[in-house]
Queue: 3 jobs
Job 1
Amino acid sequence: MHIVLLEPEIPHNTGAIGRTCHATGSTLHLIRPLGFSTDEKSIRRTGLDYWTELDVRYYDNFADFLQHNPNARLFFATTKAKHTYTDVVYRPDDYIMFGKESKGIPEEILLQYPDDAIRIPMKPDMRSLNLSVSAGIVLYEALRQLDFVSLKKEGQLHHHTW
């Protein structure tokens, strides 16, 4: 699976999403501009010790992303969608895009993909969920549909046996 962040602004959200991507074997795609630095010092300071092992790719803008991923099957997570994230039948190489924390995905992009915009249901008076929470919800639904292929599904007790 692929998680795409369009112009993320908050380093801890991106860090949490990166950790989720690493735990699930998913690729993280970051579309600039970023609201933070991903240099070695900044990454160390935020405690992202797994970042060097993460499959992360960078793009200058949305057009650059599309140019490098011409066959990407994209879904756009937004509060403005007509469909929910559970309406989708996910495939292993799907891309799920999330917009910046303050504004989401620009409507100009959403209008190009009306049938591929998805939302997480919530109370009518809620503006949105946290970006990293939203990414985790949608990614794990996609992985659940794929029977968590390549992921460990059983846990073990440390001091006892089941």
Note: The first strand starts at residue 2 and ends at 6.
Job 2
Amino acid sequence: MDYISLGRRIRKERKTNHLTQEALAEKVGISLSFLGHIERGSRKASVETLVSFANSLHVSLDSLLQDSLTDGGFSQTSASESQRDLLKEIGRMIETNLDKWNS
């Protein structure tokens, strides 16, 4: 888990939503100090707290965690959702036909 990148994304989304640390901490139900640690990547948040961040910031949980997620070897940060779906389909097609193409 990339806690530093997670903290940076939370900070970025907080600022995009024009929220102070105090306002976000209150919405999420955590202390201001704990939010500061999360944004710096020095403390871990529970799943419930991460879901609360996503809901409070109006973003998906996977967008906050994208630096820690991989799917079939494709980075979640390198493509849009439709592009990732296309890359997954291409990967499945290659896996399915690889033996036939090597013959």
Note: The mean pLDDT is 84.
Job 3
Amino acid sequence: MITETPEQWVVISLPATAHRPEHWRVFAGWRGGYLSEDRWKLNSGITQVVEEAEHIIFYGASGSGYRCHKQGYGLKEGLYLFSSYCQGVLEYKTAGEGIEILPHTTDWTQLV
């Protein structure tokens, strides 16, 4: 079931630990407007990937689905497409611990 359609998104790689194998998650962002705030979500871990003509659908361990437009990938040639709030959260979440942002050229269907 598709539950989210982010405006900007990236996939982050979380390294293996003693309690879980390496896995990948979607970090999704939305820009707010006059009456709403910017917001972000981190999915539960990618379990299935479906590629469409203009979108990639990522299904998570919780059953959620993120339908992500290919042009919305948030990091291209070192430039963030995220709002400054979402960019700050992303940088905080990926600081240290071997967490990496995958490049936009990644073959998403090969993650699982």
Note: The chain has one domain: 8-15+23-105.
